[in-house]
Amino acid sequence: MSVAALITAGGRGTRIKELGIEKPMATVLGEPMIDRILEQLLAVDEISVVYVSVSDNVPKTREHLKSLGVKVLETSGTEYCQDLILAAEDITEQHIFICPADLPLLSAKLVGEVVRDYLSRQESSLTVGIPLEKALEFGVDVTFYENVDGQPVIPCGVSVVNKASMLTREYLPGGYIIVGTPDVLVNVNTVKDLRQAETVLRERLTSSL
């Protein structure tokens, strides 16, 4: 089956303005976050193409992506769900793996596992959730959670959807895959989050030596 990846990068990123740079371009160990995510998604066999949605909120990110030859989709940058629909309308693939541009620890290994799980279930959507206990342990700012099979879980912004079903703008039935690894636990919204991501990446690099 044809699966595309969509990185959403058009938001305002207001909580990380202190860096003086657009959030997708914030560097983690010297490399822009958006580049790290692109590298991981391009390494996933199940994903045929990677798109990035941008807006006028991120002109430097747009310019950077175009210089890399990345497929860029224009959105308004004002309302997340509407922008998702707008981006999906320009994607030709049947299924879309969606992730935000502020997950610099996302790995190709996890993405592959999530996509394969989605394809095997044959449902309209699959959402990646974080156990509430694990999120609190990592210091995640919890604003919402729901019970999944009796377990409190936080949606992390990563999902796989059937494009045709999403474009109906109706509720998408589907399941959850629960993930408690740093891949989706460190969502960069502040400088503190950025430093935490760098710490985890250093640990990964050290352990791989």
Count the domains.
1
**Number of separate strands:** 10
Order of helices and strands: EEEHEHEHEHEHEEHEHH
The chain-level structural class is alpha/beta
CATH C-level class? Alpha Beta
Name given to the CATH homologous superfamily: Spore Coat Polysaccharide Biosynthesis Protein SpsA, Chain A
What is the rounded Rg? 16 Å
Beta percentage is 25-35%
Averaging pLDDT over every residue, what do you get? 91
Quote the CATH topology. Answer: Spore Coat Polysaccharide Biosynthesis Protein SpsA, Chain A
- From the N-terminal CA to the C-terminal CA, the straight-line distance is 36 Å
Q: What CATH architecture label applies?
A: Alpha-Beta Complex
Low-confidence stretches: none
Figure out the total of helices. 8
Helix content: 25-40%
How would a textbook summarize the main sheet? 8 strands, mixed
Shape: globular
Tell me what the structure shows:
By secondary structure, the protein is of the alpha/beta class. It has one domain: Spore Coat Polysaccharide Biosynthesis Protein SpsA, Chain A, CATH 3.90.550. 36% of the residues lie in helices and 25% in strands. The strands form 2 sheets. Strands 1, 4, 5, 6, 7, 8, 9 and 10 form an 8-stranded mixed sheet that branches. A two-stranded antiparallel sheet has the order 2-3. A hairpin with a 2-residue loop joins strand 8 (146-148) and strand 9. The longest helix is centred in the last third of the chain and has 18 residues, at 191-208. The protein is globular and about 40 Å long.
Helix-strand layout with pairing:
Layout: E1 3-8, E2 27-28, E3 31-32, H1 33-42, E4 49-54, H2 59-68, E5 71-74, H3 80-88, E6 95-100, H4 108-121, E7 125-131, H5 132-137, E8 146-148, E9 151-162, H6 163-166, E10 174-178, H7 182-185, H8 191-208
Parallel strand pairs: 1-4, 1-6, 4-5, 7-10
Antiparallel strand pairs: 2-3, 6-9, 7-9, 8-9
